[in-house]
Design a protein that fits this description.
By secondary structure, the chain is mainly α. It has 17 helices and five strands. Bound molecules: flavin-adenine dinucleotide. Flavin-adenine dinucleotide binds next to helix 8, helix 10, helix 13 and helix 15.
Length: 439
């Protein structure tokens, strides 16, 4: 009696509890990935996904299994494949977005109808949403610090062993995942390659650098963060395993906890990406498509903002400090709706997910469920602090590459204006308090 393993955001063979369960007792497994046309995926993300699936196919074949690919509705396809193979069990990892939970409900109904057993594996976080709970009652935390305390105090599930061998259901042939995506080749060198193998390589490399994380993570030019976020998003590496690996590194593990925090917040607030929970003075958004476009293109005329936005365009990834600065600039300086920024990040970031993207944008905009609505920022002061020599700007804004030292942050002060770079009509600004430290 074979089992169908419906893969979603767990594109890996290591620490994959649903895979282990599927193969328990030598049961034959059909790992299935369904390309769901209802989920729009931008070009860089599609390539990352395609590479991740190709890598997964290689790993599965090495273990004796084969990845089955379909296009359509994952619920329909999983049940259909179970029917074809005469499988009485479907396994799938849980997730928290509204779309994922809808899919889960539909899958549960379909399995009931077809008398198929359904087994839910743990989702993309270290601690499943709804498991670290306030002592006083309630199904979630709104504030990070008490969540972090509860989260740290929990016993986390054991890291699952990778199966030694897998057995293929008879009559099943796998697919070439790359066939399902239009030309995913030609990845620019600056863009991370998708897949579990590459993700695990990065985890290994990070072992040699993680000790400097506490002091170095805000050094924008130094690039001293793990860059694991896209791998965590697609589940090429497991958050649980990463936290086990770097257990003694409190500063780093704390950031991993932010990820869980936003996932449990999204579980409690399914409309986290759209709703304003706390109206602020800035809730009256400007309508300025030109300013929005300049921000998207990295042509605001404020060098540190443009550097961040161009890093996003070039790499499909942006340093966290640059995300804070560029997001703060959109909301607090340009007065534009944070949801426009959220959408652009959602399209361009390899690591974009509803929980982290919406949670962080709400945090910056001060519209979220937490208690501090009036966060402000000053991009120039941020630039001087976190890019003190101006290297980050020079790396990403070639028009300014010839300007030495921190003067690159304020080209409007130079005796000769740099040619080819339009200086901001909005100055650096200093009216708003700078309260971004500690993140
Ligand atoms: P590291 O510093 O090495 O941290 C390790 C891991 O911890 C990250 O990979 C990530 O999974 C988690 N983490 C770190 N910081 C945060 C945080 N503030 N919130 C949640 N998780 C965190 N992160 C995403 O994964 N997806 C997003 O769509 C996303 N959108 C963001 C939007 C804005 C406006 C801001 C300010 C931040 C956003 N972040 C998002 C959080 C953070 O910027 C990235 O997780 C981080 O920069 C990824 O780089 P890294 O893997 O090198 O992180």
């Amino acid at each position: 009696d074979p089992a169908v393993l419906l893969l979603t955001r767990d594109l890996r063979v290591h620490d994959n509890p649903a895979l282990v369960e599927a193969a328990r007792g030598g049961r034959a497994v059909a790992p299935l990935f369904v390309v769901d046309p209802a989920i729009t995926v931008s070009e860089p993300r599609r390539r990352f996904l395609a590479e991740s699936l190709a890598d997964l196919q290689t790993s599965l074949r090495r273990l004796g299994a084969d990845l089955v690919m379909r296009v359509g509705d994952p619920v329909v396809e999983a049940v259909r494949l179970a029917g074809q193979l005469d499988a009485r069990t479907i396994l799938c990892a849980e997730d928290v977005s509204r779309y994922a939970r809808n899919r889960q409900r539909r899958l549960a109904r379909a399995c009931e109808r077809e008398r198929i057993d359904l087994w839910w594996g743990p989702g993309p976080t270290v601690v499943p949403a709804g498991e670290a709970l306030p002592a006083g009652g309630g199904d979630h935390y709104k504030i990070f610090t008490p969540y972090h305390r509860a989260w740290s105090g929990r016993r986390w599930r054991a890291v699952a062993e990778r199966p030694e061998v897998l057995r293929l259901p008879s009559g099943l042939d796998g697919d070439d995942p790359l066939r399902f995506f239009d030309d995913p080749s030609g990845r620019p060198a600056a863009v991370a390659a998708g897949g579990e193998s590459e993700g695990r390589r990065r985890v290994r490399r990070w072992r040699g650098h993680a000790a400097g994380y506490g002091d170095g993570h805000d050094d924008m030019a130094g690039d001293r963060t793990s860059r694991l976020s896209p791998y965590l998003h697609f589940g090429c590496v497991s958050a649980r395993e990463v936290v086990a690996e770097f257990a003694g590194n409190e500063a780093f593990v704390r950031q991993m906890c932010w990820r869980d925090f936003y996932h449990q917040l999204l579980a409690a607030f399914p409309d986290l990406a759209t709703r304003v929970y706390r109206a602020t003075a800035a809730d009256d958004w400007a309508d300025d498509p030109q300013a929005l476009d300049a921000w998207r293109q990295g042509r605001t005329g404020v060098p540190i903002v443009d550097a961040g936005m161009r890093q996003l365009a070039a790499e499909g990834w942006m340093h966290n400090r640059a995300r804070l600065i560029t997001a703060g600039f959109l909301v607090k300086k340009l007065g534009l709706d944070w949801r426009a920024g959220l959408a652009w990040f959602g399209e361009r970031l390899l690591d974009a997910d509803v929980a982290n993207n919406a949670g962080n944008w709400q945090w910056v905009a001060g519209t979220g469920t937490d208690a501090r609505p009036h966060r402000g920022f000053n991009p120039i002061r941020q630039a001087r602090r976190y890019d003190p020599d101006g290297d980050f700007v020079r790396q990403h804004v070639p028009e300014l590459a010839h300007i030495e030292g921190p003067a690159v942050h304020e080209p409007w002060l130079l005796p000769r204006r740099p040619s080819g770079y339009r200086i901001s009509p909005v100055d650096g600004g200093s009216a708003v308090e700078d309260v971004f430290e500690g993140r």
